[in-house]
Amino acid sequence: MPRWIWFAPLTCLVLALAGWGFRMGWIAATITETDVIGTFAAEYLRLAGPEARATDCSARPGIRGGVWITVICASPQGQTYRWAADRFGRLIPDVPDAVGVREPRT
Fold this sequence. Notes:
Blueprint: H1 3-30, H2 33-48, E1 57-61, E2 69-74, E3 80-85
Antiparallel strand pairs: 1-2, 2-3
């Protein structure tokens, strides 16, 4: 059996990990606060109903470990929606002030 056959699975694994690492780096480098706020504002509009406006939402830096940004939306009825996102724009559901009926995709 040729020796290169033994190294083919290792080569495939290294290439797959390199591709995954490049993808994660690309996401981290290109996602902005505006992207995250816009995604969660769209989710707020879906949840809060016809009287809600995207301008009801604001954001602040995260204060807990792993939280990059916290988006806060206050509806005209007085209900507050909060979402916490990490550096990749993913919802962090276990943060106490985060509300996530379903996880928006950024």
